[in-house]
Design a protein that fits this description.
The chain is of the alpha+beta class. 21% of the residues lie in helices and 24% in strands. The strands form two sheets. It has a four-stranded antiparallel sheet, with no helix packed on it. Strand 6 and strand 7 form a beta hairpin.
Length: 153
Amino acid sequence: MRKLTLLAAALALGATAWGVLRAPSARPPAPVPISSANADPLPQSKRSETAASLTRDLLRYQIDPEPRPVVPSADRAPLPEPPAPVSLPPAERLVGFVRRGGQLLAALSLPSGETVVWGLGPQAAGYNVLAIDEERVARLRRPDGTEVTLAAP
C-alpha cells in the first residue's frame, strides 16, 4: 500500500510539473492609455506643417539647383600644351623580297590587309612600283599620286 501511495504522489507531482512547463510563459503587458501628459506638445496645425516638411517621395530624386560655373583660380598652373601629332608609318609595308625567274620582286602588305608580290611597273588597285633594289628598299607610287619609300623589316 505504501508503494501505491508513493506512486500516486509521484504521478501527481509529475502531472503538475508537466502542466507548469507546458503553460504559456508570460502574458503581454496591457496597453498604457495615453494621458494628456504624454500627448504631443505641438498643436494640430504645427504638427501637419512639420510632418509635410519631413516627408519625401522615395521614388523621386532631389532636384539640385543649377551647378555653379567653375572659375579657374589664379594659383593653378596652366594646362600643358598637347603633344605634337605623331607621324604614322605608311599604310603600306614592305614585307620582304622574292626572286622569281631571276627577277627581284617586292612582297608588300596593303592597307586593305592583303599581301601581294609585285615587280616593277603599274600594278592592281592603282599602285605603281617605281624601284626595287637589293639594298632592301622599294619605292611605291600610291593611287593618290604620292610616292613612298618602304624599307624592309
